[in-house]
Amino acid sequence: MDLETVSALLQHPGPYLTAYVDVTRDTADAEHRIELAWRSARERVSRDGAPDGLTDLVEGHVLRPTSAPGRVNRMVVAAHGDVLLDEEVRQTDPADVVTWGPLPDVTSWLSDRDMMIPVLLVIADREGADIEYYDGWPGYPTDEDSIHGETLHIKKVPAGGWAHKQYQRRTEEVWRRNADEVATEIDHRARGGVPLIALTGDVRAVGEIREALSEPAASKVVVLEDGSRAEGSSREMLDDAVDQAVRDTVIEEHLHSVREIEEGTGQRGDAVHGLPEVIENLVQGRVRTLALAPRIAAQREVAPAEYPGLPLPEQALEHARLRADLVAVCAAAATDADLVILGAASLPQDGIAALLRWS
Question: According to CATH, what is the number of the domain 269-356?
Answer without folding.
Answer: 3.30.1330.30
